Amino acid sequence: MSFWEYANPRRFMQTTAGLLPWLAGLSALCLTVGGIWGFFFTPDDFRQGSTVKIIYLHVPSAMMAINAWIMMLVTSLIWLIRRHHVSALSAKAAGPVGLTMTAIALITGALWGQPMWGTWWAWDPRLTSFLILTLFYMGYIALWSAVEDPDTAADLTSVLCIVGSVFAVLSRYAVNFWNQGLHQGASLSLDKEENISDVFYLPLLVCIAGFVLLFVTLVLLGTRTEIRARRLQALLARERMA
Amino acid sequence: MIALLLRDLRLATRAGGGFGLGLAFFLLMAVLVPLGVGPEPALLARIAPGILWVGALLACLLSLDRIFALDFEDGSLDLLATAPIPLEGVVAVKALAHWLVTGLPLTLLSPVLAVLLNLPGPGYVWLVLSLALGTPALSLIGAFGAALTVGLKRGGLLLSLLVLPLYVPTLIYGAEAVRRGVDGQGALTALLLLAGITAGAAALLPFAGAAAIRVNLR
Amino acid sequence: MGASVSHDLPHCLRLRRPRSLVGSSGCRMDLTITNLACARGGVTVLEGVSLTLAAGRALVLRGPNGIGKTTLLRTVAGLQPAVSGRISPAPESLTYAAHADGLKAALTVRENLAFWAAVHGQRGVDAALKALNLTELQDRPAQQLSAGQKRRLGLARLLVTGRPVWLLDEPTVSLDAASVALFADVLRGHLAKGGAALIATHVDLGLDRAGVLDLTAFRAQGRRAGGGFDEAFA
Q: Any CB–CB contact under 8 A between A171 and chain B?
């Protein structure tokens, strides 16, 4: 059977109805285990103390904030090329989830930054990029809600998503360029890969898996809602015609 | 296409065309900012590049929704879409016309406003160069945003929300070029990157804009 | 002449339409529509529309308000994608005139018309002005015209497009009796030169060789499955 069979709304609804409880349960499990493990069973960092533990929320949400946009880009392209409604609707559903992830990343970042850097906010390249990403999400969501005809909205938001992706990447590099010479990046860097040890790393992986599962659950849930709304509209339209 | 360019320029300069509104806004910005932040010359000199670029950007934003909305309302856009010139060309020409009536005058006016804001001497060349290279990108990105929102009843505010994030790289490289020029650092890199954005936008955005217009017309 | 174009592809992905080599009025051009279905707001309103319009003929579309006359004309003009079916020739042999005339209030009558002539790479602005009795008004800004005069200017635009097939949506709105007769003359002249016209109107234009097509017969049943759009969800 072809993968594209799942693009049929009815087929999609059937499949995800069975899948959803498992995904939700698994994501809850991962988040609970990862969270408890990370918060209570890892040692304090020798410099950062226990504040380092916010990493278990901060890093996964930041990853998902970016991955959500990439997913929207892919599904937008699928909509434009293959005209599968489910694809467009899943992009629509991913928008608010991605925005929430970005907000979580920014807020946990501020909470972490306050004790570590002594400030809630700094125009660090990464922070700035995330702030700009928030603006992109807001524009995308606003365009979805502003256009009445659903297919027109799907087309326009897809085009915006593609163009926005290009400009988001450009902004990322521009921000790096802009910050040069004003900040010493290293001391404020959030890059953990080189100095993180396994003690912190394993629970982090569990948390990341939990966030991925949470994201998939929420997007599937949102897509199902959108499909139901579209179905309702279609039935009402048919009623009017008859 | 030349006919379309001439028509748009003629419409912009006739009564009610809104030509000069952007310029007036730009001027107001340069007057209001010193009133807000205080008259200290050193402070003004430091923030002048940023203020001038943000001002140019916002002045550009003012007239964006007119790029396609007027033609949409009176039916011209339908007729242009069925005319022998490609819609991509229509978008490109409209962006060019928008630049000629906003971006270009802003660029030419900017040295005068830079005097008001006490921009240090070495900055002038870079200011004019960066605006000349960067404002076409503002018009092109704006034309794309206007194409996205052309069918909407209250598209103006949404247009700003869509377009401003897309303006970020242009603003950063533009203002950075002037700042580095003032500091005597190499401003050329920023300027080249700015030119790259304009060139890329000119090459790609007419296609995206035309796609959006086709969607909005159906 | 004029490749047939299927509008099945997603509208925003369709490549630029091929330029047709023939497009000047005076050439003979048949309009053929085969099994066309068209939609408004995601709902199929007309289906199974087939018609052939030979050069030199006009066809009047009839039917109650909301049946889909405008939708059909816009679909044929290539402004919106057809749900299914074929239209020949390609949109660049067609020109469309609707309620909005595409006039700029700040430009004069002559400037307005000259612009559309230039866009279509045609001349004959003077002849078009004369044909619709606008010569005396040619230097007046369009904003000072009456509704009927504006309409005449909008119709004069048809003449400077040089396209053989005219798609007219209620062309006589706000025209007085004399202007309707004037326009009917223009239309007869166009047909005599081998043009064709598909007209949605309730007014009798007094054309001797005009067929009438009642669209009521093609009203979509609304229960048809498939065919894309919202029916995928119902």
A: yes
Closest partner residue to C78 (CB to CB) among B2, B3, B82 is B82
- Whether C27 and C164 have beta carbons less than 8 Å apart is answered as yes
Q: Which among C106, C119, C161 is the nearest to B85, CB-wise?
A: C119
ipTM summary value:
0.89
Q: Which domains, and CATH codes, for chain C?
A: 5-233 (3.40.50.300)
Tens digit of each residue's pLDDT, chain B (218 residues): 788 888 888 888 876 667 788 889 999 999 999 999 988 989 999 999 999 999 999 999 988 888 898 889 888 898 888 888 899 999 999 999 999 999 999 999 999 999 999 888 888 999 999 999 999 999 999 999 999 999 887 778 899 999 999 999 999 999 999 988 888 887 888 999 999 999 999 999 999 999 999 999 88
CA pair distance C68, C48, nearest whole angstrom: 13
In this structure, is residue A198 part of a structural domain?
yes
User: Are the beta carbons of B82 and C77 separated by less than 8 Å?
Assistant: yes
Chain B neighbors (3+ CB pairs < 8 Å): A, C
The DSSP result for C191-226, as a single string, is HHTT-EEEEE-SS----TTEEEEEGGGGB--S----
Report yes or no: B12 at the C interface, CB cutoff 8 Å: no
Measured CA to CA, the distance from residue C38 to residue C85 in angstroms comes to 9
Assess contact for B104 and B91: CB atoms under 8 A: no
* Residue type at position B85: I
User: Which residue segment(s) compose the domain that A194 sits in?
Assistant: 21-241
User: Total domain count for chain A?
Assistant: 1
Q: Which SS3 state, helix, strand or coil, does residue C28 take?
A: coil
Is residue A10 a part of any domain in this protein?
no
The SS3 call for residue C228 is: coil
| Residue C225 φ/ψ region, left for φ over 0, alpha for ψ in the -120 to 50 degree band, beta for the rest | beta
Write out the H or E segment, with its range, that includes residue B95: helix B87-98
Distance (Å, rounded) from C-alpha C79 to C-alpha C167? 12
**Residue of B2, B79, B84 with shortest CB distance to C92:** B84
Which chains contact C through at least 3 pairs of Cβ atoms less than 8 Å apart?
Answer: A, B
